[in-house]
Each structure stands twice: as C-alpha cells, then as structure tokens.
Design brief:
Layout (H helix, E strand, L loop, with lengths): L1 H24 L13 E4 H19 L2 H17 E5 L5 E3 L5 H5 L6 H11 L15
Parallel strand pairs: 1-2
Antiparallel strand pairs: 2-3
Length: 135
C-alpha cells in the first residue's frame, strides 16, 4: 500500500505546478485592447494634434513608401485620445474607432484619411498650410 501513496502524492504535486506554469506563459498572450494608454487632452492640444496629423497625412501623399506607416501611426495616436477637456473644465469623451478603417486602407489613401481628419476638425479650426496633391 505504501507505493500507491507515493504515486498519488506525486500526482498531486504535479497539479500544483500547473497553475504556475500557465501563469508564467500568460505574458505571451496579446494585451487586451482597452489597456492602450488612454488620455484626456485639452481642446487646444486636440485641435493642434489634428492639424499636425493632417499635415503628416498630406506629406505622406507625396511619399508612397511611408504612406501606410504614417497612417497607422496617426490611427494609433488618435485611438489613444479618449477625452477632450474644454476651457470651462468640462470633459467630453471621444471615440476614434473609425480611425483604423479610415486611415489604414490598402492601398494607402491620403485623400480619405484627410477627409476623416477634416470631419474631426474642420478647416476653420484646423487649417493646414500645404494643399493635398491630386491622387
């Protein structure tokens, strides 16, 4: 009877290691979408950022090699902005879930990206100096 007890005890100790093994492998899993850095920005910073992104998009229209990389970076930056704080202190939540679809087209489409960004901040507020070249 004694050898049987040793075998059962060995099986039990192996089961104790299983959660540790699974926990140590958890870092291999992708991070959840909501864990991205979320931030609240002032209205002035938001308008300035949109103007900057529109300039980047327009510059990317002239350089097809950088176009997709630029669009992806802009989409990721926009998705991180979750709220805009107005001068009176009120905060409005914003969502840029459409940014990926509008900006990460294949083939790269700067005109569509500029249209999306213009919808976030019209020309009266976020004027961009260099015109978008014809595509």
């Amino acid at each position: 009877m004694r050898p049987m007890l040793k075998k059962v005890a060995g099986v039990r100790s192996n089961w104790l290691w299983l959660p540790l093994l699974l926990g140590s492998l958890a870092w291999l899993l992708p991070a959840p979408e909501h864990s991205a850095a979320q931030q609240t920005v002032t209205l002035e910073a938001y308008l300035s950022a949109i103007t900057h992104y529109r300039s980047q998009v327009r510059s990317a229209a002239n350089n097809s090699a950088q176009c997709q990389e630029t669009m992806t970076a802009v989409a990721n930056d926009l998705k991180a902005i979750t709220a805009v704080q107005f001068p009176d202190g009120s905060v409005m939540s914003v969502s840029h879930q459409g940014a990926s679809q509008a900006l990460q087209n294949r083939p790269c489409n700067p005109a569509r990206a500029d249209q999306y960004l213009s919808g976030l901040c019209p020309n009266q507020l976020c004027a961009v100096a260099n015109p978008l070249p014809p595509i």
